[in-house]
Amino acid sequence: MTKRQKVLVLYLKFPSLEAEVISWATFDGTGKKLHMTGDSDEPPYPTGLDALLDGWRLFQASQAIPEHPGQEFRTSYLKHEFFFEKIEEGDF
Amino acid sequence: MTKLLSTEQMAEFANSGCLFFEGLIDEDINREFLNDIGHTNIDQVDNIQQYFQNIKSSSSIPRIPAGTPLKDAYPLNSPLEKIFKNEIVSGAINSLVGSKTLVDHQFLHLTFPSKYYEKANQRQMSQVNHQDSTIDPRTTFDIQLFYFPTAVTKEMGGTRYHPGTHLRIVNEMGIAKYQNIKGQKNIVCKAGTIGIFHNGLWHGAGVNFSDDIRYMFKVRLQPTEKQELLWDPEKKYQPLPNRALYWTDENKDQTINDILMRSYPWQEADTNRLDKINVVKFWRLLTGHKNMDVDYWLTRIENELY
What we know:
The complex is a heterodimer. By secondary structure, chain A is mostly beta strands.
């Protein structure tokens, strides 16, 4: 038996896990499923909290970084990023 | 003759970053284009590079040095010259980037079906989300005109795009980690459809699960003049007066301002407000009304008394 990591990245509507999921990505280290860009129109969970309730472990969250002076209205990447993992055991 | 865009269409472009003209180019020109590039059945194609080489060596699509005026770019009576001469296509181009626009580059995108990848024993993956070219903080904008010579069905994985992302300044594939974004769209269209994207719109090609090759011909066009009221040479547009906010009158008709203020499901609660502010700033440039506002977003924060 070996261990493999599955990673779920959720982008939320505001920086709290109770917020709605607006973007998502999944990377499956077990090799059971190949995820790719544009493969689903509906998020895997309605909110970040729902991912926790389903056993995903949060291991990284984006920091709140104040906007640079003079650049307050510049918009760019999605802001509220949360990385989760699940470890799966099996014969891979 | 050209048919300039309406103010509603311009507002749609300012807000969403894209416009579509479904089945605009007629069947004869679509067939002519496909014949010109030597369109064939996937079973006749051994490898992608060879197919590209054949198209490049035999089609009428010219090599166009970057910066060539669009009016000089395509051979007379070639399918592409006819497409750019179409009154709606030329009107949209003139409205957005002016009549003296330059060609930045062109490309014929091909997306091969699963059958090809199975035969070649290669993994078939979609293209990641990206914004074309590089970081582009200009207020001037380019357009990317897309032409679909065949119908694009859902299973053909037509271009995926994210309406309303065009004013977000990112670095090309820096957005590749967003596998899926709420509200994402895939182009499903009739043959002869023309799409126009603001150069900043986030997009990527989908996977082609059909049995046919999918084509998308793209040209990026650059303006040489200020993009102010190009669609409204008689300067008829006038900003609307302020309206009540939050405690609103639900009986009011929908206006240009409703198009400009449309939100998208992928926008964060906080940054969505900045997205609206940036659309108003963009609309100020497009209309030449330097102090106009919609729903007080800029008036409120420009009221600096010290």
